[in-house]
Each structure stands twice: as structure tokens, then as C-alpha cells.
Amino acid sequence: AEGDGRPNFFLLWPLSAQQFGPLAYGTLESVLFHHPSANVFVVATDLPHDLFDVYVREGYCVASANVDVGGAQTILAAVSPQEVASRFVQRVNAPGDEGSLLTLLNCVILALQLLYGGVSLPMDGLMLNPFDHMLPKQLQLSSTAIFVERLMSPEEPPQDGALQAEDFEKSWLPRAHTDRADGRTVVCMQVECPRSIPAGDSVGKTLLDAWLQGVVEGGPQGTTVDVNGIATTLYRMYVRHRPKLAPISIDGGFVFNHEMVVLPYWLFVEPHFPDGWRAFGGRDDATSAHSQLFAPRPRREAADWTLVSSAKLWMPLGYGPPSARNIMPRSVVDLALLYFGLGIAPRPYRRKAFGGKTRDTSKRRLRSCNDAQSEFGNEGSVARAKEEAVLPGVVGGFRTFRHLRLVGRDDDGGVAAAPPLWRVTLRSGAPGPRLFCRREQRPTQVAEGAALPQESAAFRACQAGLLRAGPQEVVRSAPAEVLRFDACGVPGELNAALTLLAYSPTAGLAKDPNAWSAVADLDHRLSDDELDEHFGELRISASPSCAATEQAPLNVQMSALLDDVEDHVSVVAHCAERCHLLDRLGISFREAYSRLQIAVTCECSETDHCPEPVARAHETIPHMTVVTVPYDFGLSRGKSLLTRLVQTEFVLVLDDDFTHSFHSCLECMLWRMRSRHHSLWKPFDILGFPVLEDERLFGAFRGKIRVTKQQLFLEPMVEQSTPDGCARVDICPMVFLARTSRFRAFKFQENLRVGEHEQFFYSNAYLGMQVAVCWDSSFPHFRVNTMSEAYVKRRERMPELMQSAFRSLGFERAMFLFKKYDHGNMEDYEELLEKSVPPWYISDDTCGPWPAPPVPFSQILILVHSTADTQGALYRQVLRGNSGAAGAWLKRLADYGSGTVQWIFAVSVRDNAPVSPEVLAEQSEHKDVLIVHQGHRQDDTGVEEATTEQMLKIFAQIRDFQFRWLIVSRQDVFVHVERLVAALQGQNPPGGKVLGLWQAGVGAAATALAGAAGAASSLMAAGSAAAHQLDSRFFALSRDVFSLLVSPQLMSRLQTSGPDAYFGDKSLLTGGLNSWFRGFAVERISLPGMHFEQGLGATGRCPPGGTLALHPVSPEQLHALSASPGAAGC
């Protein structure tokens, strides 16, 4: 049973034990990473009972819970009538019916939740935050029924029984009417939807009874009840009785004995990011057609990870077929597996290295909040920047210490050895961070007047670790004096205590914005010494015993922001005709910050007499000032007035329909304003945030401003991406954190009623305004349907006012581009022409630096086409040098030195066929396998040949790799390394070249077309480049030829099917490649020693004359040739 702060998690695994691989362990470890105290039960049918003993040894509570038919019936009968449970199990006990098994296990988990309470999760995703991180502070995970929304498909008509506007507005988590689907949203009870059910929950009991009865009456696939519909009906009944609190009795005798929350659908990571950014034109390519999660988005990697890891709850891993789920380095899936994993699994996740070295993720180490940031800021030999990102307060404590983990395992004898004891110490300098423990790990404080949650074992362990800086006395009070944390235990218990740590901000560091002059050209930057005043030092160390040690083997040193947000930031907002929204804004901030200064303007109505601004204190919200201003005062004048009233160094500028939320982090934004990453040279003046509701609605309003022929264009480009997940831009939405002294110096045209947004950013570039957007904090745009007569009148004037405003600014018009246009795409070209925009006015894919490669540079990248059968596995074993043949050509090339070679095995799987567990295990172990679908047909020799479509998909995956030569080979080709290296060295400079076996011959299609052998011979005699055919079994491309093939404009137009007059079937790699190269001005260089017909032949020896490449060879022959090529005369 749940207790002592240990929530239950039930993970559903419907497959066999042999298929429980790295991704399944990744799901498990992501849960334990965010909930170290959790009791985790993997509900399955045949998992070994000792499968998770290594986790138990590390101090985590994990067990396999195998359920057979009898066990399922017993569990169900404990909460439902015995007869119904028995008949249900008989109905769903259909051998080989996966759907029936899922229904059975889903209902069993629901019964376990009713018995013991807990959260259910599928095992095809990753947890990205604590499950309760979005819950309102009034609610607790253990006593709240939590479900997830499911959006109906576009083909389904709206339903009266679905959630309606009133249901959203009266819920615990109301949101903008534009950010929900009224009439098209239901409560999800399917296996893929997480849910949390308290023990004995009345709603859960009703759902289970209806589910069992429906299956009994109609069968698992023909159930007579819609469980989603029943859950939705019950939820609508509940919210219609809010704000009453449970228990809630309704007509008919039903009692809601727990509160209910339905989480928004967008807490799941979407397959495509809502900002609409596509790096290569405005459309998806082969890497992103199904999702953008498994390959990094160029120039958006850090921002994507920052957003996903801070704003989302769950990342599904099932988007697209297996060939679309090759996890590439620095993708959000790759980063989540690395940085939300514990490294305890038998084969911990390691990123693909393609023959290069990969980091050992099982080694014991300290994980910190800075680790992921270092991914993007330390390429090559650049010195590592000083680590920051430790943040103060409750919110800062959540953002910081949820990442601090002792991960990996010790190499000390396995699960039979004694549990490992580690000592973790946190020390801060004086003056420095004063540590304390939070009662809950989520980013909220207990609601005022509410009962404190029961002290958990993790909280008691955290409290026990707090020590004074001097005498080692356990602190029971006055947490502001605590400068040290010292605890010893097994890693799971230590991580549970660490996640509750936080530290108090330091008072007295605020700077009056009036200390700076309002002169725009005055240097407002802080010096290095002045920045030091705002940071303390936090030293974290870990050692493998409880005894004190002089030098701990694991150490992290970080800078901790000391500033108190409430001393340094004020919130301002201007409002017209909707002043009731200002109360909602103020209350939302007051729930998080008790004394944060808030100042708002409220325009009088047109009929009121308000000649001058008048300020007053808000009647009910403390520390909030309301300034009544005349009608039509305008946004520019309103914000200028409020900024003059502000007495803090920074000001958060919002509109009246914004609020504070679980993803709001003023501490994160203030850190960016102080960070040495930005502050020493070009500190941010304006720091924006993603308005996620608007992005889901119409796209991202941020980027670069450019004026061409007196037309203003906003384009979705960035000036610079930074390692901490921010981007410098020219313009962002008119909601942001600003440096008050600089903001006062910037110019508003106060006579403008509209258009002030564009004017503000464009004109103040003259004054050097520095603008950026960071993705780890946002404030919801809580739009409302305001249709008062006065507001409608204002909206009707908007188009005319906008035109007038832009004319007064000297622009003929303004155009906001929410995607990247491609001049080579006719759809884009026609769209611009239809809008009377000359396409040459618009920037396209020529803008911006090339993205960083996902793996380090190598001289040679080798792509080996391989098969998914046993033969293919044997070939790959030999080529890696794992068969005892140390001279395998791939392995020998790698031995030439670091950075010489990387390789990829493209393992082909038939369309719609599942990937075998053996291939998946090999992919996880060796980190050099890409799974590819659709691409094999029989060529004339009976050997499967890759197709051109398959090759293009592989090329799209490796577009950003950096190398000099790309070598493409079949698995059954032997290569003489010394001769290959000599051939490549003889081709300097390596530009515009295609190396391989070029044959002066024409195919059957050309012969038939010519009508006679003589005609074909005359064609050959003419020296036509088209008649020279490259053999696709082994060839090499220089980097520039590869770049030409993968350029978006060309790649999307290369033919991958149909006959060719010279080269035959273009769907096969040989025909396709040669038809592509026909029009290229490339050097066609035929390599000597290319023997592709007889292999070793009957004599078992290579053909005379020196062999560079030999085909075909069996795995046994490849092994023998690799061990001793001279023995066969090669």
C-alpha cells in the first residue's frame, strides 16, 4: 500500500521477457529518476522474479508482478463481484489475442489501483517530470483521481457527451478557449493513457465494474460499453458540482470520494513541435515525416530539449514505424534516455557512436542540472564554461534538485554483494546558499490554511542531512543558517532526499533601477565582480562509504543564483474593457509569491470621465497597484507609465489575459539575465518566452525583422542559439522580462493605439536592444471570449488602425511568416505570389549556419547494407572484429587512429514486419545499427540489393554528419584496407569524385532501345558519360557529392522508380545511382582490383593482380580473409 510518501506505479508490459530491452528499462528508470521513493510494479505475464534485483540493491523498490489467469481473477474478485470477474477472465483469455491480453492487464491494474492506490503507465514512453508536477497546490497525488484527455479524430463529429466549454472552465485546470477542443475531447482510459487512482476511489470502482460487465456481455472487442464515455460522463458530473470539495454527493446516491483532475492532452510530447519549424524548407523530410523526436532539429536542439524537459509529462516512443524510430544523437529521445536514466540496467542506454567511442553510462557518477546543457556548449576543444543553473526558492529547488542524482552502479560483484553505501555532501561558501528541505518534490508550496502533507521518509532523510556550517548539529529550526547537507545511504534513498533540497535566496542584493541614468547609450552591464555578488558557490561531492574522506571521487561545483525574485522583479500589465481579468492575473501570481509587486493599468469605459491616471491599492490582493487611466489610453502609454512606477531592477511585462502556471519560472528568467553565458558582453535587455497556447494555435511569433522595399517581414530565423536553450532574436511577443533601466530608455510611440509591437522592436534596434527567448519558462495566454459591446467595437476598428499605424511608421505593409519558405518549392513560390509578395523578398534555406554534427568528425564514414537474418548478424560480427578476426576491414580502418572512421550498418526489415528482439538487442549493444524499411528487391544475381528509396532515407538520417569520404558497401564484400587507404590518399583533394567500379557497358534496356548490338557499341564509342555504369556493391563519394545529393531541393526530386533507358530499374540502387550521376559533372574514377563476379571461386583464391574489393564472400570467408588475406592470394 502507498504510505510514507512512497507512491505506487504500475507499469504494463504485455510482451515476453526476451523483449524487455533498453527502451523498457528506460521507461522504468525515468519513473525512478523522477520518483526515487516510488514502489514500482511491472505488471506482466512471464518476467523473471529477480529481473529487477539490481535496482533493489541500489535502494529502489521495483518488482515484477506476473499475472496469470488465476491471479487475474483473484485480483479482480477483490474489488468486483466474483461471478463477473470469473466470466470476464474467461472472455478475455483468448490465446494469441494481444488486444484481449491488454484489456485483461489494463483491468487488473485498475483493480490494483483501487486496492492500493497508484499511477498506471504504459511502457512505450518516458516520464519527463514528476507525475504530480502540474497538480494545483490544494491537491495531493495520493488523494486525487487523475486522468488524461484524448482528442477525437478529425473525422469524428463533435459529441454532446464530450467535454464542453463549461466542463473546462469549471475544472481544476481551466485554460484558454483556443487551447482546447470543446465537444471533441474525452477522458482516456486506454492502455496508452497514464492515470492515477486513489485507493477505494468511487469513480475507479464504477469504471471497472462497467468495463467488466461490458466485456462479459459483448466480448473484449465488442464491448457494449464505452469506458471512455463513462469516464467522461462521471468527470462532467464532478466538475458541474465544483467548487465543492470531495466528498460530493449527487442525485441518485453516487458519491465522489476524491477530487478529479483531467490533464491536458499537450502534456504528452507531440510528434511534431508546434512552432512549425522545419530546417530544410517548410516541410518534413524522411527524418521527420512521422515525428521530430528521434532526430535533432538543426539549430533547435537545445531549445527543444529545454522545452520538453520542463513543460511536458510524458514522451510516447511509438510514433511511426521502427525505421522512423532510429534514435539519433542529441534528439529529444536520446537526451531523455541519457539524462533521465539511472544507468543501472543490464545494458544501460548509450547513444549511437557508429564505430566511435561512446560514453559508459553504467559508471557511477553525479548527475546535475548542468549536464544536458554541456551537450550543446563544449564541442571540440572549447574550454568548459563555469557551471551555473542552481536556482533559489521552492520553484528553483524543484528545477535544480530534480536533476541532482547519484546514478550508475559499482563494479563490485553484482546483485549478490551488499548494498552500496554512498555519502553525498553539499557545501556552500559563506555567504552562500542556505539550504532547506521542501515537503513535496513538485514546484509548489502548500496552500495557505491547508494541512501540511504527512512527512515522508524522504523528507525526514533530507531534514536529517541538514547541518550547520560549524558544529555538526542537526538543524531542527532556523533553516536560513544551514550551509551544509551530509547524508549517507544507498543511492535510491539518497536521491529521494536530494530531490527535496532547496535553498533560500539572499536579501539585500536588489539594485534600484534609478541608479542608472535613462540615457540609452550608458553601459548598464555588470562587471565580473558585480556579477559575483549575485552568485554563491555550491560544491557537491560523493564518496563510496559513510566515512569522512579528504578527497571524494565524484565532485560537481556550481554557481548558485542568490537573488530573491520578489526583490528584483515586478509584474505589470495594461488592460482595456476587460479589467476583471487583472484579478485573475494577480491571484495566480500571489499563489506562488506572497509579496511580488504587481502594477496594472485599467482603462475607463468610453462614457466614464477619467481625465488623468489615478493609482490605488487593490482591495483584496496585497502588493498590487491598480492605475485607472483614460479611455483609449493605449498599450504603449500604459506600459510606459507602469515602467516609470516600477522600483525593481527587472519588470515582467504581460497582457491582461496571461497568468502564472506550473511552467512559469521567474527564477529561471532572472538567472538568464545574470548568467555569464550572456551578461559580460551582450546581456539581454528583453527576455521572451514561448507563448505555447498561441504556438499550438497558429505558430511561433518570434524571429528576425527585415525590411525590403518598405515592407516589413518577420521571419522565423534566429540570430544565435545558446547552449542553455535560449536564442537571440529581433522580435518576440510583447510579453517578456525586461531590464527596467534599459526598458525605460527604449522608445515607444505613445500615440499609437496598435502596431506598437513592431514599432518597439524595429526602432529600438537603433539603441542596441538585445532580445532573446528561452524555453524553460512560460506564462499561459489564457484567452477569453470577451464579446462586450465596447470590446467588439475596439476589435472592429483594428484593421483600419493597423493600416494607419504601419503607414505612419513608413511601411507599406507588414507580413508575419510562421514557417521557413523554400524558393525551390513551387507550393511556397505560388503561395507568395498569391499574396502579392515577390518571392525574392523572402529569406529561404540559405540563412543560418550549418547545424553541429550529431557525432564527431571522421575522415571516412562507411555505410554497410546488411540484412536482419542470421547471415546478416554473422557478417556484422566479423566486420566489427568480434569473431576473433582482428583484421576485419572496418576494425582495421578504425585502428588507424581516432577520428579516422565511423560506420553504420543499415539493417533492412521487410515492410510492416516487426523488428526481431535480436536486432534490437544488437542495436542497443553496439550503437552502430540503423533500422530501415522498404528497400529490397531481387537483382539479377539473386542477392538482395538496396533500393534508391531506402538509400535516400538513410542519406536523410546522416545529412548532418561531417566526413571527407562516404563509402557504401554490401555486407558480403571483402576490402583490402591498405589498398583502399592508398586509393583514397591518391585522390587529394577529395572533391567532385565518385570512386568504384565504373564499367563501360549498357544494360538490357539500352540494348533493346538501340535495337542492335552495333548501335549500342557506337553509343559506347561516343564516350557518353551516361553509358558508364557504377557498380553499387562498393563505391565511395566525396563529401561535396554527398552534400549535393542530400540538398533539399535536389533530394526531393530524385527519381526512385521507373525504367531507365541505359541503367534499367531505377528503384534498385544501381539503376537509381547511375541515373542520378548521369547529369553531374563529377570525376568517375574506376578503382583497380575490384572483383565482383566470382568471389574466391572454386580455387578458394582471389583473382590475380591485387584485390581491393571482392564480392561475394560468405561470413566464414570474410572471417578467414580478415584473419589472413595473403593466404588466399589477396
Strands of the largest sheet, in order across it? 24-25-23-22-26-32-27-33-31-30
Described by its quaternary structure, the protein is single chain
DSSP summary: helix tally: 35
**Poorly predicted parts:** 380-384, 471-480, 938-943, 1004-1023
Rg for CA atoms: 32 Å
The proportion of strand residues reads 15-25%
Biggest sheet, in brief? 10 strands, mixed
Report on the structure:
With 1130 residues, the protein is of the alpha/beta class. It is built from 35 helices and 48 strands. A ten-stranded mixed beta sheet has the order 24-25-23-22-26-32-27-33-31-30, sandwiched between helices. Strands 37-36-35-40-43-42-46 form a seven-stranded mixed beta sheet, with helices on both faces. The longest helix is centred in the C-terminal third of the chain and has 20 residues, at 789-808. The chain is globular, with a radius of gyration of 32 Å. The protein starts with 7 loop residues before the first strand and ends in a 7-residue tail after the last helix. 49% of the residues are buried.
